[in-house]
Amino acid sequence: MLTLQILKRELQGDVVLLTLADATGAELPAFTAGAHIDLHLTDDLVRPYSLCGDPADRYCYQLGILKDSQSKGGSLAAHALQEGESVKVSLPRNLFALDEGAAHSLLIGGGIGITPMLAMAAELHAAGRVFSLHYCARSRPQAAFVAELEKAPWADRVWLHFSDEQRIDLPAVLSDVPANTHVYVCGPTRLMEAVSEQANAAGYAAENVHQECFSAEVEVSGKAFDVVAATSGITVRVLENQTIVEALAQAGLKVCVSCKQGICGSCLTDVIEGEPDHRDSYLTDEEKADGDQILLCCSRAKSARLIIDL
Asked: Oxidoreductase as a keyword (predicted)?
């Protein structure tokens, strides 16, 4: 855990740019493009945000955070942070890393989903690798990072798409690339689904299409079952409209959770016995099929009992 000081800048489109640095000016732990950190807004409010700064800059972490009208508290609390305050953050974790074997990296960011793409573009440019970046937004005034993109040293590799001017032509964008192109997309669910469907239709291998979700609709209810936390020696009954995390908390066993939507992986736990009912967007289909891990914030059990390594 790190405690960092805040510099704050308001951007257009209801986005705030937080620059987090050590109060003494010390270097921060390194990160690679696509990484995120958990922002500890209160003791019980922790949210993951993508790092959007240049990975080569070891003295600060930057986060671009949209004020979301549907927020459950995270973005509103982040916008309420004041310059000069201190905030606790986790070490960087990368679940959305660039593939070093890609001949070409095609970056597609929609709305606030542009944030990890900024770090990716900086890292690819520094490494002399081939890439292109497409930024989609409803309108130019709502596109928070247009100024940064237009003055970047790799600005000639950027294409802007605004819904009130001209939408992105995905078939053209996904076909006008060399062989062994890897696609990275982050943004609204509709955009990510469209990219995935079009990439599949264009013959992309599944492992060449990478996504990062900021939010996900997840159904956490279902048939009741028992969970045994083997290491802690606790057994709980998970009720129909209760999550495993909530059931364990009632028994005094607190689980570290962040997104609470099965996206970030912070509550990933090994399964010793039983069959998980996966509801997350974090594990791959292959990992889900293995059945030896579970996201406790949203997933359930198909079996009557689940024994976990906790």
From this structure: yes
Same domain, 230 and 291: yes
For residue 193, give both structure tokens. 């689904």
Spatial distance between the Cα atoms of 196 and 215, rounded to a whole number of angstroms: 17
**Tens digits of per-residue pLDDT, 54-102?**
999 999 999 999 998 776 678 899 999 999 999 999 999 898 999 999 9
Vertex 212: Cα angle to 282 and 307 (nearest 5):
10
For the chain, how many structural domains are there in total? Answer: 3
Q: How far apart, in whole angstroms, are the C-alpha atoms of residue 54 and residue 60?
A: 9
**Amino acid found at 207:** E
Taking the C-alpha atoms of residue 250 and residue 14, their distance in angstroms, rounded to an integer, is 37
Residues 175, 203: Cα–Cα separation, whole Å: 10
Please report, as a single letter, which amino acid is at residue 73: G
Same domain, 87 and 148: no
CATH value at residue 234: 3.10.20.30
Three-state secondary structure readout of 61-73: EEEEEECCCCCCC
Per-residue pLDDT tens digits for 130-154:
999 999 999 999 999 999 999 999 9
Using a pLDDT cut of 90, give the percent of the chain over it. Answer: 82
**pTM greater than the 0.90 cutoff:** no
Phi/psi of residue 219, each to 5°? -95, 115
DSSP state of 60: -
| Domain extent for 285 | 225-308
